[in-house]
Each structure stands twice: as structure tokens, then as C-alpha cells.
Design a protein that fits this description.
The chain has 722 residues and is α/β, with parallel strands linked by helices. 39% of the residues lie in helices and 9% in strands. It is globular, with a radius of gyration of 27 Å.
Length: 722
């Protein structure tokens, strides 16, 4: 009986870990066994003899990752030997560790290598073939090892390798909107990873896995606290906890950053003011910064949300964003720290179009910020909508380091229950043309300094990570985290390349799976736009939680918080006029861009109602009226979700049963909510158009009053109200 109980316990433990693995904990780093025998033999031959330079914690982390990957994918026990030149081998080390003969062979590659970059190259030495993974620093070695393992994961050949790669952006960072009580603003995958109560004495192994995952895609920084900041994190008690996280992250090249609450000198410092030009305030921030670096030598710096949505800032004291940012930059400069100052500002006291306000406040300060200040700008001028034209600031501040802020968490794209491959959104923005220096002046070139050199460059992503077993809630949400990291490393990559890498690393290398799933992923974001905000509609989400449609909301205290402010539907038509006859937000773009968007003949219909208020019977390019076109787009979004469900059902042979069921159930939620969006919005807008629904659209089965009655007081991710 005792033996049976022991066996039962073993079976239960095995099932638990099997379930744990199949629920996606390993992300794109599960290192599945290489099934292709020919490739497996090729890979084994390539790693039969390995030299790995000894040294720092970062090199140890790289070595540990290589062992894990090779043992999992090839089933071999990895060992390391001396640097051999007479037999085929894998040679891993920095330039100075590999000897003059190898360095001479790679002199051109080393000359072109930027900071943290790496070389993976096949070479011939003493008539024998070798593969070299090398770099000029330890972090480059780590990135090189992760990419070498990715070649195996994606079933790429290891013969004739010649890869030289380096990050095109300096700061590649996740912004966690995590609160000290472990709730996550706009978080849809459980609670915060950071257990402040048990830190610093209990180090959850998940912290290291988080760092590994980020390093594998080139992310090199993390802001662990919410932009709606809490000054307590800057107190000694909490800084000891932050230090514990920083120590775990450091070997993986992941710097830790904190949000700085501008009123901290008052709240925790005992001062009577937080005026950035007050000498006592300046000294308080300098001393606080010195204390942080004493604990955390590689601390990255501060992220600041100021004078936005109720957050304190320099304008409370009659000072500017420039003066506030430069004050903090001066405190950080001796330590090579940076300030990321968010440009997401708009005021209830400003009657101008909300889309214009950030530009108006920041562009006059172009070239006046300290060298260690990055102005962090959302991809669009409103707020992470399913589709927005690129923010005009990207084309208007040539002398200021501007960093992109994308949202990885799906605040406005259906939370973690909807499949929408966000790298397609990122790609659309990054490849948009600002015309700052003529045609071809893309946002990506603004960010990486190609158009005008910058001392520092960067990209931030609002994280979609929580303590759910699979990190992101939706298994396909992992692809958004992965894709953000790859684009932060190289903003010129295509969403298609990223999708294929992720599919192969996460699920399978079978073309019968890859081809249809990649096509599905690449189409999924447009599908969500269609059933939520077609033809340039935007910000018609329900109040506060942004869960589901609320185009009828018009009773909030601030005009720009109401959906009716954005769609402006009336009996004459729908849309926000941002041309010369309206708010003239178009004037903030280059003349070439303004001409494209301002002219109805050339304005992309995807952005039509963003820039124009048009009559319900306006004729679209396909001959449909605007009213019919809206209904057809909403219906297409619903139909495309049904298509995803049908396709996913056929993918059972290629996917773990648990994950297949998980995605299938989420897709059914997505279908129900797509229908909800279609029905609620079209019923509401019909009260103005007074027109019949188009024949192509399935008619609503409930009344408008029903949809308006729905309440969601406990929707996840709502901003806390302290």
C-alpha cells in the first residue's frame, strides 16, 4: 500500500510538471527535441567539441543556457575543453580570448561590430572547420549564444554561417505598470511578478527565467513599477528589495529602472515643495540617486509620468517639462543614468484637440533637453488605439532623442482573451513615413538615429506579463512580447519574419502548421480593428476599464474621456475633423503627410474617420456608402474570427492538447465579443444614420438598451483609485 502511494505521488508530480510545461511556461525557450534526423546529426557534429571562455556571471549564464539548449534539443551531455585548432569545434569567447589567428580572420567583422553585438561565423583554421561565437563584451556573447540556439530551434543549417548582428537601439525596455500591492494596471495575466512582501529574502526562480526570456530577444532594461508612481519604492526599505531583483537580472544584461514620483521629496523626503528649481529639491534628488547607485551600481535611471492624468509634475510649480526632466537628468548624469520623460500629456483646461496637445507642449523644447534625457512618445497621438496614425512628434524633434512607447498589453485590443498579433501594428508605425528629410524618412529611422545622429536611442513596451503560468494569459500573447523585443533590437525587421521565428521556437517546425498559423497571425490585428474601430474610428471603448464598446458614453467629467468626443456622430455623419476646417491637427505633420491625409482622394480609408467628419452616405472607393462600409467591416471582423476558430481546430495534430484547448476556448470568447462589438456599435450609430443595416451584415439579436445596460465593475486591469 505504501509503495502504491509513492508511485501515485510520482505520477501526480510528473503530471503537474507536464501540465506546467504544456501551459507555456517555457515561452519560446522550451528547446524541443530536434526531430529531423539529418539536422540532429549535423547539430551534434557541430558541437562535438566546445571551447567556452570562462569569466563573468554573464558568461556563466550564457554557458548555462547553451548546456540547457543542447541537452534538451539534442539529448547530449555537454562538456567543455581547451581551445582546439586541429579538430572541428564550436569556439565561444571574446575577441581577446580567441587568439591572434582567429581575430585576424574576423578583423572586418570586429571592425563593424557595435556595442553588445555578436558574430557567429564558420571559419577554416588549420584546414579544419570551426564555428565561432564571439563579441567584444560578455553581453554580446550571451546574445550570440541565444541566437545560435535559435538557429537550431528554427531548424536552420549551421553550415556556412556568417552572421554579424548588433542592436540598432540602445535602450530596449519593458515598462511594467505594476503596483506595490501586486495589482497590475492594464494587466490581464494575473498579478505582478514582483512579490515585494517576500523580497529581498525570498528570490522566486521565476525572476531569473524572466531575465533569461528578455535577454534571449535583446531586451536590456525593465521598469518594475507603474508610471502612476508610488514614492514608497524610493525608500530604503523598498530599495533593498529592488536591489535583490537587480542582482538577479544583472548577469542577463537587464538593467533595472524605477518610476520617479515627482512629489517624492514631499511625500517621503519631508520637504515642503517639489519645485525642480528649488536647490533643496535638487539636492534631495541628487542624494537619493547617489543612494540608489550605492546599492545598485548598474541602476538604469528613472521613468517619469508628470502632469498627466492627475500625476504631480513641474507644472504644479509653474515650471516646464524641460526643467523637470533636466533636473532629474543632472542627478543621474554622474552615474551615466538616464531619464525617460513621457510625452503623454493632455489637460482638461486645454480645449484644443487632445491629439495636438503633446506636440504643442514638447516640440518648442527640441534640442534643449540634457543628453541623457529620452522623450518617450506613444506610437499615436491619442492612446494605444487598435489603429492610430503615427504620432506627429516623430517628425518634429530632430534634435531630441525620442524613444517609442508601444503597448504590449492589450488594453484596447480585447485584453488577454483576444488574439491580435501586435508586431503588425508595430511594423505599420515603424515603417510609416514622416517625410522629415523627404520620402523614406520612416519612424524607424527617426528612432535609430539614421536621419540625425543621437547620443542615445530607445524603445519601450508596456508589458503584458503577469504571474499566470504562461506569463501572458493568452498563449499567443507571448508572441507580442517576443516581437516587441525583436523590433527593439532591430526596428526594421518584418512582422512576418518575427512570426515565423516565434512559431518555430514555440510550437513546431512543420510547414503544414507554420504556413497557415503565420497567415492567421499576420491577419489577426486587422481583424480586431475591423470588429472594434473600423475606418479610422477610435477610442469608443467603455468607461475606465476599456472592456468592450461604449460609443454612447458622454457623461464623464472631462470631455476628452468620453467616446462621443472622438466619433462625433450626429445626423449629418461621423468622424473627427482634423483638417483645416476642424482642429487642424494635420498641420503638425510634414506638408507631404498632411496632404495625403487631408485629401479624401489619397487618405487611406483605414484612417478616414480619424481625420474627416463625413456624411453617412459618403461613397467609399468600392462604391459602398460609409454606413454600409462600416457594417461590412464589422461583419468581416466577426467572420474572420470564425475563420480562425475553424483553422485552429485543424491544428490539433501539431499542438499540445492542453494548449490547443486553451486557445480554442479563448477564440470562442473572442468570437462572442466580436459580435458584441458589431451589434452594440452599429445599433448605436444607427440612431444617427437612420439607415438600414447592410445586407452583408448579420442583424443584432439584442437591443441597444441591452448593450448599454452591461456593467463590468471587476474587469481586470482597472487603474487603482487611491
Amino acid at each position: 500500500m505504501k509503495q502504491k502511494k509513492i508511485i501515485s505521488c510520482i505520477v501526480l508530480v510528473h503530471c503537474f510538471f507536464l501540465s506546467f510545461s504544456s501551459n507555456g511556461y517555457d515561452l519560446w525557450l522550451k528547446y524541443s527535441k530536434i526531430e529531423n534526423e539529418k539536422l540532429r546529426n549535423e547539430y551534434k557534429a557541430a558541437v562535438a567539441s566546445i571551447y567556452f571562455e570562462n569569466g563573468s556571471e554573464t558568461l556563466d549564464a550564457a554557458k548555462k543556457e547553451l548546456i540547457k539548449g543542447l541537452e534538451s534539443m539534442l539529448g547530449i551531455s555537454t562538456s567543455f575543453g581547451e581551445l582546439a585548432r586541429t579538430s572541428n569545434s564550436l569556439i565561444i569567447g571574446k575577441q581577446e580570448a580567441l587568439g591572434i589567428d582567429i581575430a585576424t580572420l574576423l578583423r572586418n567583422e570586429y571592425a563593424s561590430l557595435n556595442k553588445d553585438g555578436y558574430i557567429i561565423k564558420s571559419i577554416t583554421l588549420n584546414k579544419t572547420q570551426h564555428t565561432v561565437i564571439t563579441a567584444t563584451n560578455d553581453l554580446g556573447i550571451l546574445y550570440g549564444v541565444f541566437n545560435y540556439l535559435r538557429l537550431m530551434q528554427t531548424n536552420s543549417s549551421l553550415k556556412h554561417l556568417n552572421k554579424v548582428d548588433a542592436p540598432k537601439l540602445d535602450v530596449r525596455i519593458l515598462n511594467h505598470w505594476d503596483n506595490m500591492d501586486r495589482t497590475v494596471e492594464r494587466g490581464f495575466a494575473g498579478f505582478s511578478l514582483w512579490n515585494w512582501h517576500t523580497l529581498p529574502h525570498y528570490i522566486d526562480p521565476r525572476y531569473e527565467d524572466y531575465a533569461r526570456a528578455n535577454a534571449s530577444i535583446g531586451i536590456n532594461g525593465t521598469v518594475v513599477t507603474n508610471v502612476n508612481a508610488n514614492a514608497l519604492v524610493l525608500t530604503p526599505h523598498y530599495l533593498e528589495k529592488v536591489k535583490a531583483l537587480a542582482d538577479v537580472f544583472r548577469p542577463y544584461g537587464l538593467k533595472i529602472y524605477l518610476t520617479a514620483r515627482f512629489s517624492a521629496p514631499i511625500e517621503i523626503g519631508g520637504l515642503k515643495t517639489a519645485d525642480p528649481l528649488d536647490p533643496k529639491v535638487m539636492k534631495w534628488w541628487k542624494d537619493k540617486t547617489d543612494d540608489i547607485y550605492e546599492l545598485i551600481p548598474n541602476f538604469g535611471g528613472f521613468l517619469v509620468k508628470a502632469n498627466s492624468e492627475g500625476q504631480p509634475g513641474p507644472q504644479n510649480y509653474g515650471r516646464s517639462h524641460l526643467e523637470g526632466a533636466n533636473m532629474l537628468a543632472d542627478a543621474l548624469a554622474p552615474h551615466n543614468g538616464i531619464v525617460m520623460w513621457r510625452a503623454f500629456v493632455y489637460s482638461e483646461h486645454n480645449a484644443d484637440d487632445r491629439a495636438k496637445q503633446a506636440y504643442t507642449e514638447f516640440v518648442p523644447y527640441d534640442g534643449k533637453f540634457r543628453d541623457n534625457v529620452l522623450v518617450q512618445v506613444k506610437n499615436g497621438a491619442i492612446d494605444f488605439q487598435p489603429r492610430e496614425p503615427f504620432h506627429p512628434m516623430f517628425g518634429a524633434m530632430p534634435n531630441t532623442p525620442i524613444m517609442m512607447e508601444f503597448q504590449i498589453t492589450k488594453e484596447y485590443l480585447g485584453f488577454a482573451t483576444h488574439l491580435a498579433f501586435l508586431p503588425k501594428l508595430y511594423e505599420e508605425v515603424l515603417q510609416a513615413d514622416t517625410y522629415r528629410k523627404g520620402k523614406g524618412s520612416t519612424v524607424a529611422k527617426v528612432l535609430d538615429g539614421s536621419l540625425s545622429p543621437k547620443k542615445i536611442t530607445g524603445m519601450a513596451g508596456v508589458a503584458n506579463i503577469g504571474n499566470d503560468m504562461n506569463w501572458t494569459g493568452h498563449p499567443f500573447g507571448q508572441a507580442d512580447w517576443y516581437g516587441f523585443g525583436r523590433l527593439a533590437w532591430n526596428p526594421h525587421l518584418s512582422a512576418e519574419t518575427i512570426a515565423e521565428e516565434w512559431i518555430r521556437s514555440t510550437f513546431a517546425n512543420d510547414e503544414n502548421f507554420i504556413t497557415p498559423i503565420k497567415k492567421m497571425m499576420l491577419a489577426s490585428r486587422e481583424m480586431v480593428v475591423n470588429y472594434m474601430n473600423p475606418l479610422g474610428l477610435h477610442h469608443i471603448f467603455d468607461t475606465g476599464h476599456h472592456y468592450g464598446p461604449g460609443p454612447w458614453v458622454g457623461n464623464l467629467s472631462r470631455p476628452e474621456w468620453n467616446p462621443v468626443y472622438y466619433h462625433k456622430a450626429d445626423e449629418n455623419g461621423i468622424g473627427f475633423d482634423r483638417t483645416e476646417t476642424g482642429s487642424n491637427a494635420l498641420a503638425q505633420y510634414a506638408p507631404e503627410v498632411a496632404e495625403i491625409y487631408g485629401n479624401l482622394e489619397t487618405c487611406p480609408e483605414t484612417d478616414l474617420l480619424w481625420f474627416h467628419h463625413l456624411p453617412w452616405d459618403y461613397k467609399l472607393k468600392n462604391g459602398n456608402t460609409l454606413w454600409d462600409g462600416m457594417g461590412i467591416k464589422y461583419q468581416k471582423g466577426v467572420d474572420d474570427v470564425e475563420g480562425m476558430i475553424s483553422l485552429w481546430e485543424t491544428m490539433k495534430p501539431y499542438v499540445d492538447t492542453t494548449q490547443h484547448q486553451h486557445v480554442a476556448m479563448l477564440l470562442n470568447i473572442q468570437l462572442n465579443e466580436a459580435k458584441w462589438w458589431k451589434n452594440a456599435c452599429m445599433l448605436y450609430f444607427q440612431t444617427f444614420s437612420k439607415m438600414d443595416f447592410p445586407e452583408e451584415m448579420e442583424k443584432p439579436d439584442k437591443t441597444l438598451a441591452y448593450y448599454q445596460s452591461l456593467k463590468f465593475p471587476y474587469a481586470p486591469g482597472i487603474r487603482p483609485r487611491w
